[in-house]
Amino acid sequence: MSEAPRARPAQVCGVLLAGGLARRFGGGDKCLRALGGRALLAHVIERAQGQVAALILNANGDAERFARFPLAVVPDVIGGYAGPLAGVLTGLEWARKHVPDAPWVASFATDAPFLPRDLVARLIAAVTENGAEIAFAASAGRTHPVFAVWPVRLADALRATIADEGLRKIDLWTARFRTARVEFASVPVDPFFNINTPDDLAEAERLAHSVEGSLIGIS
What is the fold, at CATH topology level, of the domain defined by 9-208? Predict the structure, then answer.
């Protein structure tokens, strides 16, 4: 059996999605909360940046609050806090303008500090092997459509869908295309464990030290 093709970083741009309102966390920037002495965003950047040719942060409001991170901060290109799909669209349109040779955008949530270091490679491989247009991650029987790879050529279709139909749910949009689902192991730690509340943050601290006292995903 031949080895699955690996993603070449030059083919893929990345967008970190931080455009939400974090209501369950009491508002503010959830990704700036500390885990293991560093911001959640720092952990996500460290895991994502080696997987892509260029990485941007999709966030609304004053960009200066992210000044300590070496990333371009790009607000939603469509108004009304349209959710993760607006962030995906922002990534697609940014890539089309700034990295026109990259046909793919990978999206990452900024509240999942244990995300896999081989996420993009496996998603791109799944697209190739399955003849799919979009590939997204799954673990423990659950899908994680925010962790996905998207073809830049769908930018105009996505903009029209958000603007004309008011669609907000990722899975309703992806259902219109050929998709591939990539399952990731959920032990010893689910790599897509996400932090929505202060209790989740406390659990992430526990999980980070759960195997032989080492910092899982925080090294």
Answer: Spore Coat Polysaccharide Biosynthesis Protein SpsA; Chain A (3.90.550)
